[in-house]
Structures are given as structure tokens and as C-alpha cells.
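Task card 7
Instruction: Convert sequence to C-alpha cells.
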Amino acid sequence: MHRLGVYKRWMSEAELLARNDNVPDDWGQSWLDSLSELQDYARGLNPFEQRIAALDLPLENQKLASFAGRALDKNRLDLAEAAHAMFSHEPVEIWQPALTRYWGYEYWRTRIAHGVRIRGIAAGKANFNNAVATLAACLCAGWIEQAKFLTEEILVLYQSKRFYNIGGMFGQPLYHWLFRVGLNHWGWEFEDWGDEDDAGEPVALSEPVLNDLVVHWHDADLTPMHDHIRWLCDYYTHRTRPADGYEFANDFLLVRYPAVILAWQRLRQERGLDNPPIDHPLMKPDYARLREPVPMYSDPLLDAVIARLRREEMPDLGAVLRPPATSTEKKPSLLARLFGRS
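Output:
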């Protein structure tokens, strides 16, 4: 097997710290504004009235759920705090609370984003990249029940062709790999993978090493897969290239924090399997190892927002729904209906 080697321009921790320290000032203000909106929303108000009016939506489309989900998306300060502590090699007690809070908000933001599309509250398609990144976060945190719900929901959205970045240059091979491993773990099958490449193969299946790792991900003895796993780590660093279509191009945490690989290790752990150490620069830092599970994150504000969403617009939020069935049966002609013919 040809080794890729570590990506030569893989950003160092020092470069990421410098990037993190230059977080735009409006990030903080944006999150404070969103917190205020979420607090008002939790109290039963409509803090999104002006934005809805600016979109000139029909009355029946003036739903608040999608706007509440977007407000949750502004929680970037916790991400910046966690990344700074991790790349500075602070103890886990320093960075884990902020990272857990960020993951908790991201989980519900993702579930809301999926729900408003399945229910037809919001137009457009969902983001596959964000969906599987959230799945990886759940597994890293040890939120197994939430990860199972999310895997099934991703499957529903994929089956109904409601993701927009699953083919061509946006094939996301590593995110497809983790999703396929999750499907295998929970016993779900799926074959209708995204767009095809120039050779007529689905982009999701275009990397032979990843295909082998889907087959062998739960082998009790990973020794025969040693070269595959080192290739996987090399490939991960190449997928941090700052260019469109690369999984980790715009995520300064995941450039160095191997969430996808740790998520795979969590699923092995769930099966009672060992995770032997991986000798690779990606996996050397102390933060790049699987931790003990933490409780699912919640706080009073988040709980109140979720409660209102369930009460008013998304009663089944958290459950896995399926899009309404569309009938393909040909309607009888007008004459047939007039004369009682079916």
C-alpha cells in the first residue's frame, strides 16, 4: 500500500493558536445577540420578527424553529475557548467543559436543522458535512443514544436526497466512511450513495482503503490493518487542506483534533473491543485520545428553547421522523372519475 505521508502544509498547533487568537470581534457580539434572542424565545416572545419580515415570507411560513436553530449556531466562543486550551496542551479539566457545551448546542442545532427540512418548515437541503461532524462529536462525548438517533436521521435524509454536499468535489470520503461504519454498527443497510466519479463509482466509495476499513473496522485484532490505519491518519491530514470540498478545511478544531477516528474507536469500545495505540503524529497529543463518556449536555436556557420548540412547532423533536410519502399512483382521468371508474 502506498503511504501518503503527512500533508506537508498541515497546520501546526502554533498556527492554529494564532488563527484562534484572531477570532473576529463580531463572533463574541454575535453570540451575545443570539443568547438574547434565545432567552426571549424561551420566554415565549418572537425575537426574529424583523428578520422574518425582511424575508417577506407568507404567513404560513413564518415559523420560528429554523431561526432558533440558527441562533444556536452562533455558539462559537466555547469552540474557540476549547481549541485554545487543547492546542496549548492545557489539562482536560480546562477544555472539556467548553467543548462539551459546544457539542451540546451543536447537537440540538443539527437536529433542528434536520427537523425543519423533514417537516417542510424550511426550504433547501441539509448539510451532510455538519451532520456527520455532529455525529462524530456525539460519539467522542459518549452520547451513544443521541449518536444512534442522528445516524438514523442522516440515513433518512440521505434516502430522501435532502443533502446538498455528497458528491463530486464535495464527496466527503472521511465523513462517508464514519457514516458507513455507524450504519454497520447499528445494522442498517444503504446502497444509493451520492454522485458518481469519472469512473462511474460513487464518490463515497472511491477510496479502497476506506472501503477495507468499513469491512474490518470491528475486527478484534487490528494488526493486519496496521498499514490501513496509518494511511487513514495520513489521509486525515490531507483532508485538512484549506480548499472547497475538504472535510476539515474550515474547522480549526478538527484540523488537529481527530474526531472521526476517535468516533470510530468509541464504536469499537461499545462492542467491547480494544483500541490499540496508533503511532502517528495525528494521534500523539494528549487531547487526541478517547476519553471517558460525559453526561449529555443541558442547561436551563437550552432546555427551555427545546421545550418551546416541542410545544409549538416540532412536537417530535429528538425523534427520528420520515418525510411525508408522495404518491406515484397515476390519477384517473376526469371522465373516469365522472363515470365512477377507478
